Amino acid sequence: MLDFQWIYCNLAQIADDYAHIAPIQHGLLLAVVIAWAILRERIGYVIRLYLLLLLAGVSLSAWLHANLFNGIVFALLAVVGVYELFARKMELSLQGRPKYNIIIAIVGGLAGFYYPYFVGSYISALWSSPMGFIPCPTLLVVLSFFLVAMPQTNRVWHWLLVLAGFFYSIIGIVYLKVYLDYILLGLSLYSLNVLVLAKPKPH
C-alpha cells in the first residue's frame, strides 16, 4: 500500500533541497516564454529541449530522493521527449491558435510557476515553487506549452503527459490534499478533449 504521508514528506524534502535552484527555473521559464512570443517557431528546438529538461529534472530529483516510481515515470516521459527533438512533430509558431487554448494555457502555466505547496510561504512561492523538481507543477507548465501548440503536437508524448496529469492530479487532490491540483486535473481534461477532437495538419 502506498504511504501517502511519506510521499508528501518526500515531495516537501525535494522542494526544500532545491529551493536555491528554483529561482533559476523560474527565470528560465520567463525567458523561454518571452523568446517564444518574439521569435515564434525559430526557437522551436529550444522549447522542445526546455520541456525535455523539465521532465528529466523531475526524474533526477526523484531518483536522488529514493522515489523510484516518479523517477521511472518521468524518465520515460523524457525519453519520448528526446525523440521529439529529432522528429519535430510539434509546431510552435503560435499563428492561428485558438485564443481560449492560449488563455487556459496561461492559467495552467501560472499555476505551475506559482505553486505554493511544499515551500516556505505564499510569498516565497513566487520564486521558489518546485517547478521542474516535482511532478504536478512541472506537468502544469509542460501541458500548457502543448495546449498552445495544438493541434500540431507530438501526440504520443501529449497523450502520455495527459495520462500523467490525470494520475498525479488525482493523487494530489484525494490523498495529499493539494487542491491547486484541480487546475492540473482541469487542464488534463481539456487537453484530452482537444486531443480527441483536433485533427493535426498533414505535413
Task: Explain this structure.
- The chain has 203 residues and is mainly alpha-helical.
- It has one domain.
- Helix content is 71%, strand content 0%.
- It contains nine helices and no strands.
- α8 (155-175) packs antiparallel against α9.
- It is globular and about 45 Å long.
Q: TL;DR?
A:
The chain has helices at residues 4-17, 22-39, 44-64, 68-87, 99-113, 125-128, 135-149, 155-175, 181-197. By secondary structure, the protein is mostly helical. The longest helix is centred in the first third of the chain and has 21 residues, at 44-64.
Number of helices: 9
Low-confidence stretches: none
Portion of residues within helices: over 70%
Rounded mean pLDDT is 90
Task: Specify the oligomeric state.
Answer: single chain
Please report the distance between the alpha carbons of the first and last residues. 47 Å
What portion of residues belong to β-strands?
Answer: under 5%
List the helices and strands and how they pair.
Blueprint (H helix, E strand, L loop, with lengths): L3 H14 L4 H18 L4 H21 L3 H20 L11 H15 L11 H4 L6 H15 L5 H21 L5 H17 L6
